[in-house]
């Protein structure tokens, strides 16, 4: 299954929730841009893109089950949902395991291992900063403490007018 087919399947899975759909499509776009500009190898880029599309797959379940979709709940519920979603999509087990790992850690900002993980964190933050109207101080702190890629930092500065 291609990345575009995964995105189409995820749009269908989202059952018309435009907020969820728009969020994951924006995260996917930023992840794709950052990954390509940082020259990830093809497999890592594909893992990143699929993880970006699926990163919030647990949000509907969490809202229903817990009344909210807080990050730790998403991280706990998301990996199993992602594995089920990717079942019979033609991806190798190691690929699916890495996507599930990324989904299970996409709100964990310590011990970031791998460029796919780093870029997913950055792409999600770029979108969340806008959607949640983060302060300039929050954005600057995140840039200084978490952002590592040249492209992610450049995008953050450009989008939010940070010097």
Task: Describe the structure using short key phrases.
single chain, 163 residues, mainly alpha, Hypothetical protein af1432, 0% strand
Word description of this protein:
Helix content is 72%, strand content 0%. It is mainly alpha-helical. It has a single domain, classed as Hypothetical protein af1432 (Orthogonal Bundle). It has helices at residues 3-13, 18-37, 42-54, 59-66, 71-86, 93-103, 115-131, 136-145, 150-160.
User: Which segments are poorly predicted (pLDDT under 50) over 5 or more consecutive residues?
Assistant: none
What's the mean pLDDT score? 96
Tally the structural domains: 1
Largest sheet: none
Radius of gyration: 15 Å
Helices, by number, come to: 9
Please count the beta strands (DSSP E, at least 2 residues each).
0
Task: Could you tell me the CATH topology label.
Answer: Hypothetical protein af1432
Name given to the CATH homologous superfamily:
Hypothetical protein af1432
**What are the secondary-structure elements, in order, as H or E?**
HHHHHHHHH
Q: Quick one: overall form? A: globular
Approximately how much beta-strand content do the residues carry? under 5%
Would you tell me the structural class of the helices and strands? mainly alpha
Our measurement of the CA-to-CA distance between the termini, rounded to an integer number of angstroms, reads 41 Å
Give the CATH architecture. Orthogonal Bundle
């Amino acid at each position: 299954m291609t990345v575009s087919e995964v995105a189409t399947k995820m749009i269908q899975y989202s059952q018309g929730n435009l907020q969820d759909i728009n969020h994951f499509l924006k995260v996917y776009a930023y992840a794709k841009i950052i990954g390509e500009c940082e020259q990830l190898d093809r497999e890592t880029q594909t893992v990143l893109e699929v993880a970006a599309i699926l990163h919030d797959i647990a949000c509907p379940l969490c809202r229903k089950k817990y009344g909210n979709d807080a990050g730790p709940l998403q991280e706990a519920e998301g990996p199993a949902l992602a594995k089920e979603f990717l079942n019979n999509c033609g991806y190798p087990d190691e690929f699916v395991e890495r996507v599930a790992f990324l989904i299970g850690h996409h709100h964990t900002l310590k011990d970031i291992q791998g460029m796919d993980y780093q870029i997913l964190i950055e792409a999600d933050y770029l979108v969340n900063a806008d959607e949640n109207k983060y302060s300039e101080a929050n954005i600057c702190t995140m840039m200084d403490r978490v952002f590592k890629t040249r492209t992610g930092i450049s995008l953050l500065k450009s989008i939010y007018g940070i010097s």
